[in-house]
Specification:
alpha/beta, Rossmann fold, 2 domains, six-stranded parallel sheet, five-stranded parallel sheet, 15 helices, 13 strands
Length: 352
C-alpha cells in the first residue's frame, strides 16, 4: 500500500506523518533534495524530471506514506508518475481562514497569500478526485468541518490504519459489481430521499456534521458509520422504528426504473435490509458506500457493457449521476435542488 498525503502548505501534513505508525513515513522534499541537492534552483521542467525520477524509484517500495503537492498556486507540479505511484490519495483539507493565518505567521509560506486559498484548495481536490476517477484509484478528503482543522489527529490515524487493513472505495465497487446479476440495463438508486422520501437516519433522531464540508468521500462515510454505530448502541430502535412499509416510496422514480434495480445507500442498514426484502431489490450498504464508490459502480457496470440509469438526490450521488447513461436527480419537496449541489454542473441530468 502506497499512500500520498496531499494538501496546501501549512495544512499540517508533517504533523500527521510524525504520528503514523502503521506505514513507513517518507519525506518527499528530503528525497527530492537527495536526488538533486540544488532542487529549488532548478527550472520547472527540471524539477518535474526530478519528481518523475523519485516516483519511478519509489515504485520499487511498498507500504509507505509520503507527503506531496499537487500545485503551488497556478503552477501544477503533479505528474503522471506521481499518480501512477500511489494506490490511494489523502487530501488534508483545512478551513481557508485558518490556512491564511498560518501562512501569515510563516516566513517561508507567506508568499502563497497572493493566491485565493479557497479556490486553490477546491481546484486541487477536484483535480485529484478527477484523476483518481479516471485511473481507478482511491481518493479521500480528510476534513473536520466542525472545527476546520484537527487538534487531535487520532481519528486521522485510525482511518489510515483502516486503509492499510483494506478499506477501499474502488475495491468495494468492484465487489458490488461482481454481485450484480448480468442485465442489459441496470438502475442504480440512492436510498434515503430518493427511493423513499424520508431519511432513515433522521427518522431515528440521528444528526451529524460529518458531511458539512460537502466532500462525501470514503473518510466521511467511514466516520459517519462510526458515529452512527455509537448512536444506535444507545437507542432502542424497536421503540422508534415504524413498520418499513410506512416509509413513502417515491413514485416519481419508480416508473422510470428499468432492468435490474440496485439500491446503494448510506442509510440505516437494518431498515434498508427490510426494504430490500419487501420490494425484492438488491441493497448494498456499509461504511465504504460513498460518492466515489457509487461512481465506480456505474463506471464498472458500463465497462461490463451495461446501460446504466442512476437516481439520486444529493452530492453523495453526483459523480454516479454524471457518469450514468441516463441520470435523474430527485428534487426536494419545494422543487429545488439539494444545497449540497450548489454550483455543481448538472447538464444532462433530468430533474424529477
Amino acid at each position: 500500500m502506497r499512500i500520498g498525503l496531499y494538501g496546501l502548505p501549512t495544512a499540517g501534513k508533517t504533523f500527521i506523518l510524525d504520528k503514523v505508525k502503521s506505514l513507513e513515513v517518507l519525506a518527499g522534499s528530503t528525497l527530492l533534495k537527495e536526488i538533486a541537492p540544488n532542487f529549488h534552483d532548478l527550472s520547472g521542467n527540471q524539477k518535474d524530471e526530478v519528481r518523475k525520477q523519485l516516483a519511478v524509484f519509489l515504485k520499487g517500495k511498498n507500504d509507505f506514506i509520503m507527503d506531496g503537492h499537487y500545485s503551488f498556486g497556478e503552477e501544477i507540479v503533479f505528474t503522471e508518475a506521481d499518480g501512477d505511484l500511489y494506490d490511494a490519495f489523502l487530501y488534508l483539507y483545512v478551513d481557508p481562514d485558518i490556512l491564511k493565518e498560518r501562512m501569515k505567521e510563516s516566513t517561508r509560506n507567506s508568499k502563497y497569500l497572493r493566491n485565493d486559498i479557497d479556490e486553490w484548495q477546491k481546484f486541487e481536490i477536484d483535480s485529484l478526485r478527477d484523476y483518481c476517477h479516471k485511473h481507478n484509484k482511491d481518493f479521500y478528503v480528510i476534513d473536520n468541518p466542525k472545527e476546520g482543522f484537527f487538534s487531535d489527529i487520532n481519528l486521522v490515524l485510525d482511518f489510515i490504519d483502516e486503509i492499510v487493513r483494506g478499506f477501499s472505495s474502488f475495491k468495494t465497487a468492484s465487489n458490488i459489481v461482481a454481485r450484480i446479476p448480468e442485465a442489459a440495463v441496470i438502475s442504480l438508486i440512492d436510498g434515503d430521499r430518493t427511493y423513499i422520501k424520508e431519511d432513515s437516519s433522521a427518522h431515528l433522531g440521528y444528526k451529524t456534521h460529518v458531511f458539512d464540508g460537502n466532500f462525501y468521500t470514503g473518510f466521511q462515510s467511514w466516520r459517519h458509520h462510526r458515529e452512527l454505530a455509537e448512536f444506535l448502541s444507545q437507542v432502542d430502535c424497536s421503540k422508534k422504528a415504524k413498520d418499513v412499509r410506512e416509509f413513502t416510496i417515491n413514485n416519481r422514480i419508480t416508473g422510470l426504473l428499468e432492468g435490474e434495480p440496485i439500491i446503494l445507500t448510506t442509510g440505516i442498514i437494518d431498515i434498508w435490509k427490510m426494504i430490500g426484502n419487501i420490494y425484492g431489490m438488491s441493497v448494498f450498504y456499509g461504511n465504504e458506500l460513498n460518492a466515489d464508490t457509487k461512481y465506480f459502480v456505474a463506471k464498472l457496470l458500463q465497462n461490463r457493457g451495461c446501460y446504466v440509469k442512476a437516481f439520486g438526490d444529493s452530492m453523495n450521488d453526483y459523480y454516479m449521476l454524471k457518469q450514468a447513461d441516463a441520470a435523474y436527480l430527485v428534487l426536494k419537496s419545494d422543487g429545488t435542488v439539494s444545497s449540497s449541489l450548489k454550483n455543481r454542473e448538472l447538464e444532462g441530468v433530468t430533474f424529477v
